[in-house]
Amino acid sequence: MRYTLKQLKYIDVAARHKSITGAAKSLNISPSSISSAIDVIEEQSQKKIFSRLPSKGISITQFGHGFLSNARQLLKAHVTFEEAVDEQAKAINGAIRLGCFTPAAPIVLPLITKSVADNHPGISIHLTEGDSVKNMRQIIDNEIDLVVGANTYLDASISFIPLFTAPPHIVLPHDHPLANRTTLSLKDVSNEPMVLLDLDQTREYMFGLFSQDNLTPKVAYSSQTSEMVRSMVAAGMGFSVFNLRPLQKQQYTVGDIVRIPMTSGYRAVEYGILRRIDAYLSAVDHVVIDTCIRLRDSGAFNMATLPEGENGPII
Length: 315
Prior knowledge:
The protein is an alpha/beta fold. It folds into three domains: 5-90, Arc Repressor Mutant, subunit A (Orthogonal Bundle), CATH 1.10.10.10; 94-165 and 269-304, Periplasmic binding protein-like II (D-Maltodextrin-Binding Protein, domain 2), CATH 3.40.190; 167-261, Periplasmic binding protein-like II (D-Maltodextrin-Binding Protein, domain 2), CATH 3.40.190. It is 42% helix and 22% strand. It contains ten helices and twelve strands. The strands form four sheets. The protein has a five-stranded mixed β-sheet. Strands 10-7-11 form a three-stranded antiparallel β-sheet. Helix 1 (5-17) packs across helix 3 (31-45) and helix 1 packs across helix 4. The N and C termini lie far apart (73 Å).
């Protein structure tokens, strides 16, 4: 049998109205178009789909019931197919170059990339990490599209969309005499050896925190990776100060750490999305920005920080 979806649709509507005239009015076509569709199928099948009842419309034959059951499945499948094609046509595909401040990258980027991948599998994200100076240079030079970084020393050409605020907290070896304190100030640890996260603007920020209390830290060790700094603290080599914490408990080769909220008044760091004000935003760029804002509004970034003045040490 040869038939068209339009013919099947005409027959289905006629069956539902039990009237050729009623079906024609519903579809805003002529009754002859409905009759023609019925005639074509009945001629090919050599079976009657409807019995014509003078002055009473039409009634479905036994063959017609079976035929309509199959026809409706096909029509439904066609609607599903069209919806799927439309959805696919609306899908956003493409790539984005996304930069991030190195210490924040393993904490926040998995949240962002997984959410984008779950909702927009056609988007690929090329990730780069760097300190604030490198990120700023790359975004100004259009080497990357967006950056997740701090709202510090921003060039006038850069726009900032806030995502979350990260107050500083003190990290101690788990067996340190101060490890059970609910809060600490830098005065409490000023005579202790410090393990410094030694990145350009991070170093400046840390020294600025100490200057708020007219102090100078006793830096005994330094590293350019957060993981090494935490491992050194866990091994009992000193204390450190962080604004971010991993979302999952970390394991260390030697020892462990606790995180103690700092007393209020110390300068927090605001993280957000950086982009060039004059840069064209693609559909992919908008997806990533909207994803970050949705994660922000849902509180997804909250576990990456230790709220100022929160009671008790956090392991």
